[in-house]
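We modelled the chain as a single entity of 169 amino acids. Its sequence is:
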Amino acid sequence: TEMVIHLTNRGGIINSILNDKNAVSNAVENIINEARLYEGINLNLEGLGFQVKGDELRAVQASFNQFTKTLAEKAKALDLRLTLTLHPPNSVYKGYDYKTLGGYADKIIIMAYDYGAKPEPISLVTQAVEEALLSVPKEKLVLGISIPSENTESLIPKVNLAKKYRLKG
């Protein structure tokens, strides 16, 4: 079992935490203390990097990378898995540095949904998988599919995509 930590960046709340060393330290310690009751942690911090570019985007990525690194080190010391649930690399949320995060996480769940159209366009899901594979080994990747966004016909190609690239999910 994994303890799920889910928070969206409404009003910049995640950015505020990530940019405050005391808040980061407190968050990591509280997560680790609670996670001892589980086999791992699923960190799902959504909405990072929306409508930011350049140095500001790099700063968002760096702060999330540092938070994840700190959490990963403490989790590994206790033999706890770390799973990251991330927006896909081709989404409007660019605050996730897949390459760096892939080095810290045991698994990354690609949230290959919420592109707008329903069912989710297979071309965008395929692009998300292929971009993630450029930075993260396939053994660490899980394809996340939103069942309510799909129908029987649209679900089959997505399952086949996971099989083709030998992803979990």
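As a brief sanity check on the tokenised model: Strands lie at 2-8, 40-46, 81-86, 107-111, 141-144. Helices lie at 13-18, 21-35, 54-77, 98-104, 122-133, 152-164.
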